[in-house]
Design brief:
alpha/beta, single chain, Rossmann fold, globular, 187 residues
Length: 187
């Protein structure tokens, strides 16, 4: 992995691999899809941790948007399918949906050390909605691409990997089972 100094937020899980410079970077940790806070628990008490998940609860040392961050502002009904809950399964549970800009404004997020995305297929539209300034303000992105649950998304995965490369990130696959990638800003 290039010259990265890899640490894991969950020691036994490779999908939680990040470059250790996040510990000295002056940005926040943003965890979209923060189920059980397992991935970002490592940072609680070390850095500001902000999450978004419609079915999660705030934990001491975190801030939470109990809804969906995507590419529009409004409402959405989804079905709670546990770990695999996705915005693409309509259900009875209604939640607020806000854009990335609105999320950052609401939580006064200026710089991000690590953005973690595990949002069951919504990562494609969300990444495409980011502005150049958004990418400038994010040092590392850890993302689970979900083409394994919908093969039609293979093209989207490839396009988003190319987008990250164009935005000055080096990207490596860090987990082959769940298709997690780490993108680290070239400095």
């Amino acid at each position: 992995m290039k010259n990265w100094k890899i640490i894991r937020t969950i020691p036994e899980w490779d999908y939680s691999s990040i470059d250790e410079r996040c510990l000295t970077h002056d940005g926040d940790i943003v965890d979209l899809g923060c189920l059980d806070w397992d991935w970002s628990n490592f940072f609680i008490g070390k850095k500001r941790v902000i999450g978004a998940d419609p079915y999660e609860n705030e934990k001491e040392g975190t801030e939470l948007f109990k809804g969906i961050v995507w590419n529009f502002d409004g409402k959405m009904k989804i079905q709670n399918n546990g770990v695999g809950t996705t915005i693409f399964t309509e259900g009875e549970d209604e939640f607020d949906v806000i854009t990335w800009k609105m999320f950052c404004d609401n939580f006064n997020v200026k710089k991000i050390s690590v953005l973690k995305l595990n949002i069951e297929g919504a990562e494609y539209d969300l990444l495409r909605s980011f502005t150049d300034e958004d990418f400038e303000n994010i040092d590392q992105i850890v993302v689970s691409f979900h083409h394994r649950i919908n093969p039609e998304w293979n093209k989207d995965t490839d396009e988003c990997i190319e987008l990250l490369k164009r935005k000055n990130y080096t990207i490596e696959k860090i987990n082959h089972i769940w298709d997690w990638f780490l993108a680290v800003k070239n400095i």
